[in-house]
Specification:
The chain has about 260 residues and is an alpha/beta fold. Helix content is about 15%, strand content about 30%. It folds into two domains: about 1-140, Hexapeptide repeat proteins (UDP N-Acetylglucosamine Acyltransferase, domain 1), CATH 2.160.10; about 195-250, Up-down Bundle (Udp N-acetylglucosamine O-acyltransferase, Domain 2). A hairpin with a 2-residue loop joins strand 27 and strand 28 (about 185-190). Helix 3 runs antiparallel to helix 4 (about 240-250). This is Acyl-[acyl-carrier-protein]--UDP-N-acetylglucosamine O-acyltransferase. GO terms for molecular function: acyl-[acyl-carrier-protein]-UDP-N-acetylglucosamine O-acyltransferase activity.
Amino acid sequence: MNIHPTAIIDPSAVIHPTAVIGAYCIVGKNTVIGEDTILKSHVIVGDNTTIGKRNTIFQFASIGEIPQDLKFKGETTYLEVGDDNTIRESCTFHRGTADGGNLTKIGNHNLFMVNTHIAHDCMVGDHNVLANNVGVAGHAHIGNYVIVGGQTGVHQFCRIDDYAMIGGASLILKDVCAFTTVSGNPSTVHGLNKEGMRRKGWSKETIETLDRAYDVMFRSGKIKADVIAELSTWVADEPKVALFIESLQNSKRGLIR
């Protein structure tokens, strides 16, 4: 086990033998650090935090401290971080609250650039990139393969669905539909994330079908029920259209348009 002599580890913490705990790190109570995870130096991992395999956490990050919620009264709440994440300098991830199910959860294969903040009760999926100084407020949901540009602020309870792309210095006050590009303050939708689709090797036919689905979603003027009814008939031929339907069905704050 590679633990620097200046690190402070609570006796209740479970550290995998292949994990690396660098100089001046602090690991709190009832915390688990998984296989091949690296804490560089000066990293704080709070209580009741589980960090999976092969994560790299850079100096001055604070992972698993108490939430910045005035309703929090010291309840036992949790943070879970999956596998293969890169968490750069000065990132802050907070534990959940009783009102949010007691849990903040981070998935796998994400890149959190310098000074990213993930607040209490957020749910973040897999393969996302959050650039420098992104702030994600409490109870927000970020799906999979999402890119969030630097300096962006995400309001409480907002959803950013799969394959969306957010331009830098944007303000997200409503939900972001899957596949779309959004930017601005206030933010507006600017079309499909076609370049992202091409980079993932999606076929021309798939992209064209999603483009037509976007027109139904944002340009047809149809009401929500009619959009869902029409797009539901497309899913058998192009399953990815289902993500448009899920964005409509799951949105509580309304979609950015």
